[in-house]
Design goal:
Structural class: mainly alpha
Number of helices: 2
Helix content: over 70%
Largest sheet: none
Length: 74
């Protein structure tokens, strides 16, 4: 598995972990047992998702730039 596929798969798994963390936070808030450390769990996963998401966002532009192709200029 190459680097881009590994990052993409990690991003997908992080999105599942983030969804679970948000659900857990919601349940603890409703039960009145909220802990700030538990809230940081979702923020940590979200930060990792941001990093992998930015890589995936920039990847097509970087590939195009490295190949020397430009779009829309004749």
């Amino acid at each position: 598995m190459n680097w881009s596929k590994w990052i993409r798969q990690t991003h997908r798994w992080l999105s599942i972990a983030f969804t679970i963390a948000v659900i857990i936070n919601g349940v603890t808030v409703v039960q009145g047992k909220y802990n700030p450390k538990l809230g940081l769990m979702a923020v940590a996963v979200l930060a990792l998702m941001f990093i992998t998401g930015m890589y995936l966002f920039v990847l097509p532009y970087a590939t195009r730039w490295r190949s020397g192709r430009t779009r829309g200029i004749s």
